[in-house]
From TrEMBL, chains A, B:
One of its GO terms (biological process) is prolyl-tRNA aminoacylation. Belongs to the class-II aminoacyl-tRNA synthetase family. ProS type 1 subfamily. PANTHER family: MITOCHONDRIAL RIBOSOME PROTEIN L39/PROLYL-TRNA LIGASE FAMILY MEMBER, PROLINE--TRNA LIGASE. It comes from Veillonella tobetsuensis. The keyword ATP-binding applies. It comes from the Bacteria. Catalyzes the attachment of proline to tRNA(Pro) in a two-step reaction: proline is first activated by ATP to form Pro-AMP and then transferred to the acceptor end of tRNA(Pro). As ProRS can inadvertently accommodate and process non-cognate amino acids such as alanine and cysteine, to avoid such errors it has two additional distinct editing activities against alanine. One activity is designated as 'pretransfer' editing and involves the tRNA(Pro)-independent hydrolysis of activated Ala-AMP. Homodimer. This is Proline--tRNA ligase. Its main location: cytoplasm. It catalyses: tRNA(Pro) + L-proline + ATP = L-prolyl-tRNA(Pro) + AMP + diphosphate. GO terms for cellular component: cytosol. HAMAP family: Pro_tRNA_synth_type1.
């Protein structure tokens, strides 16, 4: 392709509302444009990269035995009502009525639809397993769309679904997809990590998120410095932190005027945070839940939900809810409190191992000191559970080595769904004995547009994007430093034709702009290799090949350019 | 691919609500499934064919200099209000509000969005021309979805848009797309015809529809038996049919009780239809329009709209509207009528060339005989225009040869839009003199899913589909007549590997079903070539290659299969 024909308007200025690097660079480099809040158009460069990601996904999905289909974006409300998710999905699901006032949604995911499709066609164990996928625009009406493609409202997703005869077979499908995903993200050039994750609202029993490691990520990951253990901190299992045993001092109330945070109390009383305990009050529907962790720990809301068998994620309790169960915000501890049908107390395991700690006195402007949970909490009124978030100070739950912490962008997720949807939508098959069984399902998603953004978050510098070769819009750009010079253009064109002929994805920057402008654009757009054709090197019948990633520049005889380019590309 | 792994459930029964052959066959052969009224899921076979059509489109669009982009499906209402189409589009446009009650539509087409995109980036004549396209699901809430993929509510469309400096340049873009479309449909194997068409609601000055010729088509096409002339009958220019001149007889009223159709009158008075004139009364908004054609002709509503410079398509007048302007339904002619601001009379040119004809007497149960329009119509009160539909009895407007009539499925359309959208959305560029000009636009659509349906309408027999090679889901199926026979399977696998290696798109039917079942499925699904591996031919080291299209079967030595297959495919 010729740059003079390419529709790739670059911007000098960083758009003011672009809040992450990938978004800024995609706008500046002419990869995409914003249409409205959370809605983007891909321009030719961005779309070329997306298509390369899609091609890699298709190859690896097909290779693993999955088959591509295409279901409608418009989904009848009926099937969502049958599965129970029409109401559960909330405001994030975009809903629309047709001219006859029949209700539909714009698919945020397709479990209901694929289950409905398959249940009418598959009757026998002989027809299983089946694994079907599609690559399609999905819709989620985010409360706060942000971070460009990472949290947009319309986004490209690969969603796949497997159907098996039983758990063991479903585990095989799960593993096949796990492996395919590993190959896909490896081929895309991402630095990623599969991490254990929470199965959340989608239901299911086993799940891994594929996390692209990047500062801009919204997910918190803990991983082992020695073994393969990695988990979303929501699911990371913290150990029990024991404190050095002390003599139990007498419980005492002290005045702590206005000190309604544990940090303020600790400062006021000159205590280290680990010698305090912290209360956070949640509500799940009408039930109020008091969660207690050590002052230096944080509450894991997912663990709180599990501890009380909550059907939905906990939300922070309102002042009205606190008042209803008699709690004094900022000054709460389990001492003297009783659980009821409307009120549960969940205490983290490590809290139970503290001695002589400080916590709320359950009245305004006062705290207890010398709380000893094993002595002072009524065990019949509390649930003891691991409800704190795992931290870097914990050790690996598998091999006890030190842990490390990263931020991650969730680019893929594999789920073992079990029979949640096949039961609610009656997707059964007859087994070898002619008895009906619910199919065991898995579902597998890849954020295609998000993968593009994640790659940029990982690979950029102050001058622009540094594309992994496999998903670069072009692998090579040829820059004649003066497009009006016939000798330079003639050499450039010869190299261009040779590379095209050798199946290299190459752009010839034939624009009549100054060399500086073209170099800046090449760095900004981030082609893996730049071939500079200038009078200097042409004298010795050479051109310069520059590697975007390392900045290294090599002079190469014109006749050997194609071989050298292919050699360099294979190393990128 | 192995048939035992392929998700392609075939049906024995023709689904009762499938109203055209393509829909029936796609359902029976396992290419797609119905989700809801006008909504379909593509199964793997159908999706393979769609992807082949898309690949052909991409190749030809890219070759013609167009560049692929991807705009959101969700479109802000604002830009449609700016262009004036938010209201004009009516119930066919699907509208949706987001969680903040901001209005959007699901894109039925993207003129507004692409114009908005381009206008912010292109400032100078130096940046033009630009031609951008996308392949995407589109949404139109049809009043009556029908004919499967031919009139569905969510469908796959290639939509493209060109921007030029002036009319002459836009004509070049138009011609480039016209040629690309011709290549695309030729490569897809369709029998098609580009026909002149009406530009309709989208606006614009020049347009061709690409019609796949098929009985199931909804469009009426007239084309010349000798030259290239072809037109949608809505736009076909009828000549003036002259009648043999007669002495003008005296106007006379005759009783025609209950004869309120021209056919009834002709029968009652024993007149040939061409000796009668027929009234059809329309309304465009509040204006009533009396259209008169010969009794043996039909009214062209598009021509009526043009004749009165109507802004929208005419609708049939209501009884109230007729009464308001004093017309007596069933007994109307222009004789004695006067035009007003609310009432226009449009008379077809051929009506003016009739003698002593019969028409309504403008009172109930009575007709005039011996109307002579040139004598009896007040020329100041009528508009004379070519408002009849062209018929097979006309001659070619270009070369005067006989015309032929076909039904067509509109699979593509090229439009010269002019400046309708660039003016309403202010998409201007600065010309060489620094003066702002509106860009001259074109838009170009291909119904991708409809192309698939059209191919099946054209190529099928009582046993199933007969795919053109380029868009068949697989080019070749290998059928070992007994999959449990190791010798047959071994030969089949060898041939399969050889063909795969030679880049032939081949399916191996390794299912353990009876040969008859596999043959029936092969015919139904419509693979262009079937290789039968049986003991009979294996004795002489041969297999049978059968051509689906002709039914011809050839025995071929096993070592020569790949060469023969490629030779046969190249002829299909």
């Amino acid at each position: 392709m010729l740059a003079s024909k390419l529709y790739a308007p670059t911007l000098r200025e960083v758009p003011s509302d672009a809040d992450v690097v990938s978004q800024q660079l995609m706008l500046r480099a002419g990869f995409m444009r914003k249409v409205a809040n959370g809605l983007y158009s891909f321009l030719p460069l961005g779309w070329r990269s997306i298509k390369k990601i899609e091609a890699i996904i298709r190859e690896e999905m097909d290779r693993s035995g999955a088959q591509e289909v295409m279901m409608p974006i418009l989904q009848p409300a009926d099937i969502w009502k049958e599965s129970g998710r029409w109401n559960a999905y909330g405001a994030e699901m975009m809903r629309i009525n047709d001219r006859h006032d029949v209700e539909y949604c714009l698919g945020p995911t397709h479990e209901e639809m694929i289950t409905t499709l398959v249940k009418n066609e598959i009757n026998s164990y002989r027809q299983l397993p089946v694994n079907l996928y599609q690559i399609q625009s999905k819709f989620r009406d985010e409360r706060r769309p942000r971070y460009g493609l990472m949290r947009s409202r319309e986004f490209i997703m690969k969603d796949g679904y497997s159907f098996d005869i039983d758990d063991a077979a479903a585990d095989v499908s799960y593993k096949t997809m796990y492996d395919a995903y590993s190959r896909i993200f490896t081929r895309c050039g991402l630095t990623f990590r599969p991490v254990e994750a929470d199965s959340g609202a989608i239901g299911g029993s086993n799940t891994h998120e594929f996390m692209a490691i990047a500062e801009a990520g919204e997910a918190d990951i803990i991983h082992c410095s020695a073994c393969d253990y990695a988990a979303n901190i929501e699911i990371g299992k913290p150990g029990i932190m024991k404190q050095v045993e002390e003599d139990l001092k007498e419980l005492e109330v002290v005045d702590t005027p206005q000190a309604s945070t544990i940090e303020a109390v600790a400062e006021m009383l000159n205590l280290p945070l680990e010698k305090t305990i912290k209360a956070v009050v949640y509500a799940i529907e009408d039930k109020v839940i008091l969660a207690m962790v050590r002052g230096d720990h944080d509450v894991n809301e997912v663990a709180v939900q599990h501890a009380v068998n909550g059907s939905v994620e906990p939300e922070m309790a309102t002042p009205e809810q606190l008042e209803k169960v008699g709690l004094t915000a900022g000054f709460i501890s389990p001492v003297g409190l009783k659980q009821t049908d409307d009120f549960a107390i969940v205490v983290d395991e490590s809290v139970m191992e503290t001695y002589n700690v400080c916590g709320g006195a359950n009245k305004a402007d006062a705290h207890y000191i010398n709380i000893n949970p094993k002595r002072d909490f009524n065990t019949e009124d509390i649930i003891v559970a691991p409800i704190r978030l795992i931290t870097k100070d914990d050790v690996c739950p598998e091999c006890h080595s030190p842990l490390e912490y990263s931020k991650g962008i969730e680019v893929g997720q594999v789920f073992k769904l079990g029979t949640k949807y096949s039961e609610s939508l009656q997707a059964t098959y007859l087994d070898q004995n002619g008895r009906p069984n619910a199919m065991v399902m898995g579902c597998y998603g890849i954020g295609v547009s998000r993968t593009l953004a994640a790659a940029i978050e990982q690979y950029h510098d102050e001058n622009g994007i540094i594309w992994p070769r496999a998903i670069a819009p072009f692998e090579v750009v040829i820059v004649p430093i003066n497009a009006k010079d016939e000798a330079l253009m003639s050499t450039s064109t010869t190299i261009y034709d040779t590379l095209l002929n050798d199946k290299v994805d190459v752009l010839l920057d034939d624009r009549k702009d100054r060399a500086g402008v073209k170099f800046k654009d090449a760095d900004l757009i981030g082609y893996p290799l730049r071939i500079t054709v200038s009078k200097n090197t042409l004298e010795s019948n050479e051109v310069e090949i520059r590697i975007r990633k390392t900045g290294e520049a090599i002079n190469c005889p014109i006749g050997e350019v194609s071989g050298k380019v292919q050699e360099l590309l294979s190393q990128l």
